[in-house]
Amino acid sequence: MLWGLAGDVRALLMLPAALTMQVAHPAVGAGVDEHSVFRTDPWGRGERSLRSLQLWIYGGEAAATEGRRLRELHRTIQGTDAHGRRYHALSPAYYSWVHATGFPVYRHAARYLVCELTEAEERQLYAEWLQVGRILGIHDRDMPQTIEEFWPYYRKVLADELEATVVVRELVDVDQPVPPPDRGPRAVRAVLRALWPLLRPPLARFRRFMTIGLMPPDAREAIGLPWTDAQERRLRRFARVVRAVVPVLPERLRYLPLAREARRAERLRPGPRAR
């Protein structure tokens, strides 16, 4: 399930919703607020985060190495949240929540952008997401082991913990200053810098629209993010176009780089009779 979902370009539309749910936890939000470079280097941070996520799924032996690197990176991240409570990034409750958000977002967003998952597919997706948690160094005792255990845990976090933190408000603020992209060919970057005053406002509105729209409704409500019936209809129209267009794209446009490489290597791997 993850092999197909996580490397598809449609996953790029899903990730902001998961990130926003993560930082809606006061401890996670404080860690990002105080230690992340998302304000000064948003494009670089986004690129690094995306590559890391892709390695968990398509990296083979490199997945475990990446999981260890992330834990080492977070080892010194600690402080006090907005409620005066001490936090450490590797505290199981906080690290596990960051991981946990992926499953409900993939499940919900797939209904719009890919297809409705069957019960068997949901169970398979959850089992695979548990394996991602193990790659990240999360113990089984700190993750719900079945879907039946997951949903009460998830609803409890929504009810008891999540709020519109400072970072959440920044992520959905369409007036938040964001520098132009600093990745890609020099000529493209120059054009983007010149056009950025015109491009940034509609892109910011689109990001907010997709972030809130692809977030599970119960999480959206828990955080206090508004969503109207008119916006829901717009999202459904947009999703119909995406579902029609993406499956017919050539592979080089449909899949992200690490996913393309992994899919190519899998096709080239000799079968049992050829060994």
Automatic annotation (TrEMBL):
Residues 1-26 form the signal peptide. GO terms for molecular function: oxidoreductase activity. It comes from the Bacteria. Residues 3-244 form the ER-bound oxygenase mpaB/mpaB'/Rubber oxygenase catalytic domain. It holds the Pfam family MPAB_Lcp_cat. Keywords: Signal. InterPro entries: MPAB/Lcp_cat_dom. PANTHER family: BLR2777 PROTEIN, ER-BOUND OXYGENASE MPAB_MPAB'_RUBBER OXYGENASE CATALYTIC DOMAIN-CONTAINING PROTEIN. This is ER-bound oxygenase mpaB/mpaB'/Rubber oxygenase catalytic domain-containing protein. It comes from Streptomyces pristinaespiralis (strain ATCC 25486 / DSM 40338 / CBS 914.69 / JCM 4507 / KCC S-0507 / NBRC 13074 / NRRL 2958 / 5647).
